[in-house]
Amino acid sequence: MAADAAEEIRGTAHGTAPVPLSVLDLVTVGAGRTATDALRTSVDIARLAEARGYHRYWVAEHHSMPGVASSSPAVILAHLAAHTDRVRLGSGGVMLPNHAPLVIAEQFGTLEAMAPGRVDLGLGRAPGTDGATAAALRRSDRLHEGADEFPRQLAELTRFLDDDFPDGHPYARIHAVPGPVQGTSPGGVQSPHRPPIWLLGSSGFSARLAAELGLPFAFAHHFSARNTIPALDLYRETFRPSEVLDAPYALIGVSALAADEEREARRQVLAAALNMVRLRTGRPGLVPTPEEAETYDFSPMEREFVDSWNADVIHGTPDAVRAGLDGLQQRTGADELMLTANAHSPEVRLRSYELVADAYGLPARA
Hints:
This protein has 15 helices and nine strands. The protein is an alpha/beta fold. The protein is globular and about 65 Å long. The two termini are 36 Å apart.
């Protein structure tokens, strides 16, 4: 096992947190706000995460969703790298079938050069959007075929990152730059280090593949809670030690929103749930305000969806959120909890991460 790679993957718990805590940012855009506002908020949250001892900060690739301004993770991560110094930055994730593996290797090689030793490359096989948008991204309508090719694309990407295509391979003389080839060139001093790869998933497919390859695994509990424990069990049971890890390491994404008062937390998650109702019914838009959500006339079917959705959102006072996170970690055995606070207001999201940090006694701001 490569000790340095394992150290980058495995975080350190602070305060009374049972495991390392991290942040997943969807770069949400609320009604009456702009993408510029959302990206400024991402910088603020990343700085807060760094100051309070959150381990890593990931952004996720989405497309054609007005309320989510994270269509270009590599661009956002470069921006965040310029405004932080220590927190790990990464993709949660880049949707590999949407891109040529060489392009991703170049983008994340560039990020690694910008922020050495603190970049993660999380990969997913879903499109991060609807089928029509995925077809436009990939210039193909053979979407199922693209998902099925994920293991081959992953192997190709890994070869580009490591610069180790075998002799005779069509890509043997192609190099991802920045990358290891610069260190082997005459006079080269480029570090051979590259970002660790994570596999993301919401079912058993990526769990099994991550286990077979000995890679860390991130599960999307925040939108696939029913599959969490089966997927984590599959990952652990079939894990094969590798040069990257000698034992499984799994984090789960968790929707969690803390507020000073329980009623306020309920108002905020209701608005986020209304946003999901609209997305799931083909009406994506900006994240509505709590006031709009409170006056919205939910149909019986929509109300059932909201109740089911919010049952998996840990929300309330800081003590209630801490208890919910502790219980979830105990039930799943997750090695890391990655929190996503979805709300209309930037102030509410920032306050939530601050309150969770306080509840666990994470390091205070300098």
